[in-house]
Amino acid sequence: MNWKIVGIVVVILIILSLPIIFHLNSQKNEKDLAIKKCVEACRLAMINGKDLSNGPCLLDPIPDLNDWVCDVAHNPRQDIDNLTENQCSSYIKGKASHFVEVDPSCNFIKAY
């Protein structure tokens, strides 16, 4: 077996896998940032006295993350969470592909 060829193949495979690794890592970082911004927006809304009990959309879209929205929902979900006026229009219209949900106390529920 020619070890030089094996070494070259290994290096090529590593180089080819780097964009995939970078892409997956950047998606995770984007999701983490979206969660952080959503929780912060929720806490700020609470401090400012905003009523979050009806599950409003807080960020539509999340600043600097145009493919994400931030929505308040209940856990477990309540009928009020499914009302159109309480959902983020960017997500409903397909302008945003991802959402972060926090509960009315600003606890993270899920990100999709």
Topology:
Elements: H1 3-47, E1 57-59, E2 68-72, H2 89-92, E3 98-102, E4 108-111
Parallel strand pairs: 2-3
Antiparallel strand pairs: 1-2, 3-4
Give a summary of the structure in a few sentences.
The protein has 112 residues and is α+β, with helices and mostly antiparallel strands.
Structure description:
There is one protein chain. The protein is built from two helices and four strands. With 112 residues, it is of the alpha+beta class. It has one domain. Strands 1-2-3-4 form a four-stranded mixed sheet. About 4% of the residues have low confidence.
Cα gyration radius (Å): 20 Å
Uncertain runs are 21-25
Indicate the structural class.
alpha+beta
Estimated helix fraction: 40-55%
The pLDDT mean sits at 88
What is the total tally of β strands? Answer: 4
Give the strand order, joined by hyphens, for the main sheet: 1-2-3-4
The number of domains: 1
Run of helices and strands:
HEEHEE
Number of contiguous helices: 2
Major pleated sheet:
4 strands, mixed
Kindly list the characteristics that best describe this protein.
2 helices, elongated, single chain, 112 residues
